[in-house]
Design brief:
Blueprint (H helix, E strand, L loop, with lengths): L1 E5 L2 E5 L13 H6 L2 E3 L6 E3 L9
Antiparallel strand pairs: 1-2, 3-4
C-alpha cells in the first residue's frame, strides 16, 4: 500500500513493482480517487468525490 496524489486528490493505492520504462497508474487507483480516463481523449475525468469508492 502507498499513497497517490492526482490533480490535488490524495488516497491509498496498491503498489506493485514492475519493470516498465514509465510509471503506471492503474484503474483501481484512479477510481479510488474519483477519476476515469476518457479513451477518446486520454484525459482524466472526474466521476465522483475523492474516496467515494473506498466506502
Amino acid at each position: 500500500m502507498g499513497e497517490a496524489k492526482v490533480k490535488g486528490r490524495r488516497g491509498p493505492v496498491m503498489i506493485a513493482a514492475l519493470k516498465t520504462p514509465t510509471p503506471l497508474l492503474g484503474v483501481y487507483a484512479l477510481e479510488s480517487l474519483g477519476f476515469k480516463v476518457n479513451p477518446r481523449t486520454g484525459e482524466l475525468e472526474e466521476i465522483g468525490p475523492e474516496g467515494g469508492y473506498l466506502l
